[in-house]
Fold these 4 entries.
Entry 1:
Amino acid sequence: MSYASARDRASCQVVKEIVAGERGRDDWEGAAGGGGGLPEGVAARPDPDKVPRNGEDAAEWLLYGAEYHTARYRRDVKARAGADPASLPPLPEPLALSRNDDCIDCLRRAFRHVRSLGFVEMPDYALVEGCLRQFAREAKTTIREIVRPINWNAAPAGGKRRTSPPPALGTGGVAWDLLDEEPDALDDAALADAENDRRSALEAAASQDEAVRSGVSGGGKDPGGPPPAPAAVGPGATGEAADLARLPLRMQFSLAQAEYNASRPGSVPVHLALRDWMKLALPLAHGTWNAAAWERGNHRTGDDGYRQEVYMMMLQRCLRAAEPFDNFSDRRCFYQPEEETEEGEILRPKRRRVGTSSSSSGETANGGDGGGRRNAVVGESPLVVLSRVFFSLRLELDMQGAKSFAPPPALSFR
């Protein structure tokens, strides 16, 4: 799990293959000095003779215990960074269960059954349950202790809290939903999960960097200064790519969808293009722009009075994405196509069912900077809501352009 939390996919794959018996001593012997295809935690195992032969599994490794494996992972990280082996703390003793052949055999039988299943085959749950019950008897414990439910919201060991769910993009209470169309297959829940995965990976990378620094500098002592904050973007991202990477995934996806539609105005139905465009436009026009997290430099606030350059870039791209559709002035945005009966009679076009809802508070929405924009009023027609969105986008772009550039963040040299 330590490799997984650090997104070290190559090491995860190797460990899983060793546990399943797809790798073994032949691979270990070919990885001289802990190099080659095996992770350092495996190659530096205290008793190399117990590394299984190719074709054999290593189910007992799972019973070494979380304390052992976590300590081993931390040692490996520091060792790869060049720390003195003598300065590293000793590993804790593996759990006694790892030496219980009957317990290991119970796991092995369950794993072999699962590994033999095809994609559409139903597992033999009675067999798996029987293996767990026998394991519990041999380990002198209970099924409830073995298969313990996980509280995903609890703080992990070490006092660090889990990543909180990303906040939803605000729209100032304004909504635009096509009630006659199927909902978007990629909903907010899927993007929220992806956002959590991304933030967890960045935090894990920052924690690993902190562990390396504290282990290498001063023979294991903390080098001083605050711990590094989780990076907002991945390594190597610069310019506009870095600007976009700081934004929430929902906003990134909405921008990509709107620009994709704009590149194909002849094939994308205009009412669907409007639906996708509003997912991008509403947060920009009526939501709150998080300047501290989304602008450059990590030193900005929403009311500092300076130009928000990333926000301006998003406003410009949003407005450009509407131009190939004539800014959604087409009647088909709001009315379904005319229908002809069998008798040749032309039926009156039906209005599309567009669900609009909004707040009537009349407060400004973009960080409280007095931009002059007001939220749409409950009961307004879709055309009025759309007009207000365009007005807000253009007004905010003009107001941002009239501001001066923000000074760079303060620099300090140690």
Entry 2:
Amino acid sequence: MPSDSVALASHPASPFLNQTLTLWTERRRQIRLEVEHQHDHMAVALSELHDRWNDMRGLRRERWDAFENDDRLSEDRWMERLGRIEEWRGTLMQLQNRFGGIEGIVSGIQWFDRAQDVGKRMAAHLGDRIVPYENTHTQLHEQLEQWLSALTAKEIDLKDVKQKAEDRTEPLLVSRARKQPELDFLAENLAKDADLGLQLHRLRRTVALSLGRLYRVSHLLERHARVNEGLFEIRRKQITEDLKNSQNQYFGLREKVLADALLYESCRRKLRWLKEAVNALRCIEDVYRAPESAWKKFVNRF
């Protein structure tokens, strides 16, 4: 003990304090026993709760497993149903394709029935129209031959004149009265050139339009026959055979018109040569002035 510390005098314990301490000690022991009892009770309750939790967890696991199993079974059933639906869809598509093919065949048969009637009427119409076209071609051909003969005769005459001019040492001069018939012939044949050219153009266009209609009909027949060649090819040949005679007639007329076109071009070449030859003729009045008459001289004095 340090030297400056004070020694406390010991006193006897107080009976009240001893009694109080004894009560507290007893109360503490009772509280501890109660706490231990409650702890044991809570431990039992927790154990029961844990067991119930495990039971519920196991039950939920079983339900989840059952749900997953049912889900897998349901998915398998849905996949099976979807597979059947796809099979039904494929069968439906096949039926639709078959129906479309049957509908196309029926439509094609109806179309060829109408086409056969239209083809016969068209063949009759073209057969009636070919007669005036042939007459027009015959008249045009006769006019071209006559025109070619007239141009050839005039070409021979002007060639004789041109030969005489070449044989002369001096330039060949003609009077206006001698040149005027040549100018009139040239003007008349230029007008004939325009008229015959217009007739030939109209005839060629008419024949081309008729052949174009026949070509479009043939193209339509081939396109519709490709739907079912085994069924429609015979119908196509029948309609084509009905139009074959008219087609051959128009082909023959086209060849004749082309031949006339060549004849027309030959006539135009001769006409161009005649035009150059007539324009090459020189008039005396253009080179030498005509002498004045006596009365003009008398008038000119004043």
Entry 3:
Amino acid sequence: MNTRSKILVTGGNGQLGKELREFSSLHTGLEFVFLSREELPIHQFELVRNYFNTLKPAYCINCAAYTAVDKAESEKELAFLINGEAVGVLAAVCKEHNTKFVHISTDYVFNGKAAVPYKESFPTDPINVYGASKLEGEVQAMQLNPDSIIIRTSWLYSSLGKNFVKTMVQLMSEKDEIKVVKDQLGSPTNAADLAETIFNIIGLCHLQIYDWNPGIYNFSNEGIISWYDFAKEIKEITNSPCDVKPISTAEYPTLAKRPAYSVLDKTKIQKTFGVKLKKWNDSLRTCISNMEN
């Protein structure tokens, strides 16, 4: 890779941004610029343009997002500004500067009524504001910069941020019993695996080993489980004595509806970029090991 290739990462202090930062230390010949949401609020469009004029990055990985799923129901305007309009502006600015744009999206663009894993081409139909705002970002990115790569992921967790795994580990250390939803199915994604995949795609395309193939791709770890199964595995790995009990979605009401089925078909990203997928439980063990160390 060209030593002067700058890679700009927005949302640099989120869990994926932090994992990308960990991987960047392995690429000593590259120049990475990580900007937190405080340093570069992507919905402040003039600031975005000024940064691009100064940095002139070869690549931009957008990890910045409004991710408070329940809160989005009452903050629709802000969610759509950050997840929708701002993504469109970033994509357009990337096109102006000939910057390759990688944007992270979500399984929540689907309604969760499928019975087979969602392919990228399946019809979208979000059932909450967060999902609708992320879909708007996808639409704007592809309209304003058709050369974009969008990666949809699901059930993202990491040893470096707030997420289901860290919450479960904490609750299991404090409580004798917890209840976890069993009728929502999906595939967890270790953010470290997603970070590695993003770097591999950029690196292999930059070296012209693979062509830059714009479009939408799905990525997660392998396996189909419920949140309850996820919690049970966390309990087993951490040797927690906490009793994990299954409950239904109806018994755990939330402000925003959740898809009942969020499994993504990853065939496209595997075939296009030679991506290798790890099993969800192997990646979970690695993550918890990193947390303990």
Entry 4:
Amino acid sequence: MNIHRTGTLPVLLLTLSFAAGCGDGDPQMPPEHMHGEEPAPREREYFIAADEVAWNYAPSGMNMITGEPFTDDENVFVGNGPDRIGSEYIKALFRSYTDDTFSELSPPTEEPEHMGFLGPTIRAIVGDTIVVHFMNQTTRPASIHPHGVFYEKDSEGAPYEDGTRGSEKDDDAVPPGETYDYHWQVPERAGPGPSDMSSVMWMYHGHTDEVADVYAGLMGSMVITARDMAHDDATPTDVDRELFTLFEVVDENQSPYLQQNIETYAGDPDSVDPDDEDFGESNLMHSINGYVYGNLPDLHMNLGESVRWYVMGMGTEVDLHTPHWHGNTVLVSGMRLDVVELLPATMVMADMVPDDPGNWLFHCHVHDHILAGMSAIYSVAP
């Protein structure tokens, strides 16, 4: 099923966002804004499918923070056994395709390796229209729900009693094997505000069964750039490198694939008690982009580059995260920081101009989360 609704742009609304400010003479500020010919408003098309894939939270098989094999305490979360799943799970992930046949994945060069299990980055410039051609290639109904942009009821991607009927409900739960076109407009209120940097991030995620969909892995990021600060591909002109990180305690116990994961990965599936407290604990994956214990790859940058970090959180009441950068600092809302605060469904944009080369720890500063593996390494080349 394919439905097109254009609608009209809303009046300008006032929005709040976490943002980084700029101060004159600051040695860590991004280069001067590069003003040139502004890209014309356009329709930006994306071909995104929900796919069921096998995902490994610790593909190296070791703790990359310590450089050592996993300890007994760490194997609580990543160790495989007769009644344990281990570090590999079947998940549902958003993935990018080259066209509406959904037969060929987009080249891996289009998305940095550090994105992990995050879906493809959806980009647009203020004034654009985003069209997402969505294909549900999983065994369950699925949808895409965006934050921040403007959409009509037939492109919300969330089922609830909202007074709509008929075709306006088709976006809520796309059946397995079927397609749907989501249309999202990008008015000024979806882009950077008066105190924001040149680009802002919004998240998108599955919302047919929101909790189960998110824990299954249906999460992604969307970047909206100011028109006078955008390249034609919608990337910001004053940034050399963009990095995306999702901090989340992924509760695989609430994934719709739990029983399938037990049957696929546990050494003796019949011995598994899903209600056992220790088994439940083993499936709480304290991850950054779907990786634990330093297995997140490719957080690389160069000395003196303008680096924009898009940091977001998701989850439940345990998902109070405090991402901390060793070695370098960031600017957020005009403040100099090396730790930022996240709650579920919050997003922070932080600008860094690294002045300290080396390999540096990047981790959640909550003690329980450190012990459970919510840590990574970022590298600054001289």
